[in-house]
Design brief:
The chain is built from 14 helices and two strands.
Length: 382
């Protein structure tokens, strides 16, 4: 379908966001078992297939969200530019506050208990939640001002405010410009510069805050262009080949050589490979989405609404379930088979039977309220 109408909704972007949310869920499940630092770890570490999966998706999964958010911001500003900041706060700020004050304390408590940094019940720990800022896993502070995994919402809210004057100024010129090979080749240079020079200033999920900011701006100014789709159709297969090769090189490097520790030529090459992975996986995913996912159905409509509550709840649920099984003498594959479906079912149960039916909870989880009549219709359909 080659439709250059800027007002046509492209459902593939909705599908990509939904599927990326599922990948984030699986990635955080894998963090319970792999050798990388996380809030709670299983008593047996898996350095083979689970670690392979973590490396396979860890580089690009959050960058995908920031690019899609940049594209979404462009279309959001066309709908309600006057109330954009208010909409951003309700959509992002309210769930973030929920995460900071309600969902993060149990996560910090479990981390402290399992790492022998605290003894006692959760109610004994809670007053200590406000002791110092939580800045890193295993650190001394407890107050998770960024909401743990909800740092994405905080960054997106800040980016939306900071970039708004620029976005309003250039929005009329976005769709008129052509996305071409020069953009594909030159735009990664800024990403590489950010990764090499300032990536470690604020490091979140393996990338720096400026790296994510660039991707967010790219999403708005470059990837929202109508011409991008035609370019993706031409370059997508090549991007897929480069994705496979660069990802293979990255995983081999990490698993058999190790992460470069100090700034050196090896470190520079390693970071360049990582940027190549992110950039080409992004185009390959957009290519696959355009080719196979540009349709809508009831599953997409339901999952699109569920994606925010799912994101807000997924890590606390994983950590809570992990807390009850981390020290059991089960084989890793048995715990995987237990953790993944139980966590998924728990999250979807809470969303389907509780959150989506109560307007106050809908607001707290970043959803729009629905009228009572609509709720009755949804109940009947369910």
């Amino acid at each position: 379908m080659k439709d250059n109408n800027p007002f046509v909704r492209h459902y593939d972007l909705d599908w990509i966001k939904v599927l990326a949310m599922l990948v984030v869920f699986l990635y955080h499940c894998s963090m319970f078992f792999n050798s990388f630092e996380w809030h709670i770890k299983n008593n047996i570490i898996n350095r083979s297939y689970i670690e392979f999966f973590s490396l396979l998706v860890g580089n690009w999964i959050m960058p995908i969200f920031f690019v899609i958010s940049g594209i979404g911001t462009y279309h959001a500003l066309k709908k309600y530019s006057q109330s954009f900041i208010k909409e951003r706060f309700l959509r992002l700020g309210v769930p973030l506050l929920l995460g900071i004050f309600l969902l993060s304390p149990p996560q910090v408590y479990i981390e402290r208990i399992t790492s022998d940094q605290f003894e006692g019940s959760f109610f004994q720990f809670f007053p200590h939640y406000f002791d110092g800022l939580y800045l890193e896993i295993g650190g001394g502070g407890n107050f998770a001002f960024f909401g743990h995994h909800l740092w994405y919402l905080l960054m997106l809210l800040l980016f939306s405010v900071v970039t708004l004057p620029f976005f309003l100024k250039v929005r009329r010129n976005v769709e008129d410009r052509v996305f071409g090979i020069s953009h594909y080749l030159l735009l990664p240079i800024l990403l590489t510069a950010a990764a090499l020079t300032i990536n470690s200033i604020v490091n979140l999920a393996s990338w720096g805050i400026v790296f994510y900011l660039l991707l967010f701006v790219y999403g708005y100014y470059f990837f929202a262009r109508v011409s991008l789709r035609n370019f993706v159709r031409r370059i997508g297969f090549l991007a897929g080949i480069i994705s496979v090769l660069s990802t293979g090189g990255y995983i081999f490097w990490v698993m058999y050589i190790g992460f470069p520790v100090n700034v050196s030529m090896d470190w520079v090459i390693f970071m360049i490979i990582r940027v190549i992975v992110v950039w080409n996986v992004l185009f390959f995913i957009l290519y696959l989405g355009d080719k196979f996912l540009n349709f809508s159905n009831s599953v997409l409509k339901y999952c699109s609404e569920a994606s925010m509550p799912f994101y807000v709840l997924h890590q606390p649920i994983i950590i809570l379930i992990g807390f009850f099984i981390y020290d059991l003498e089960w084989q890793v594959h048995v715990k995987v088979a237990f953790l993944v479906p139980i966590a998924f079912i728990s999250i979807m149960f809470i969303h389907h039977f509780i959150i989506r039916r109560v307007n106050l909870l809908r607001v707290l989880f970043g959803l729009k309220t629905v009228q009572k009549m609509d709720q009755k219709k949804e109940t009947i359909k369910a």
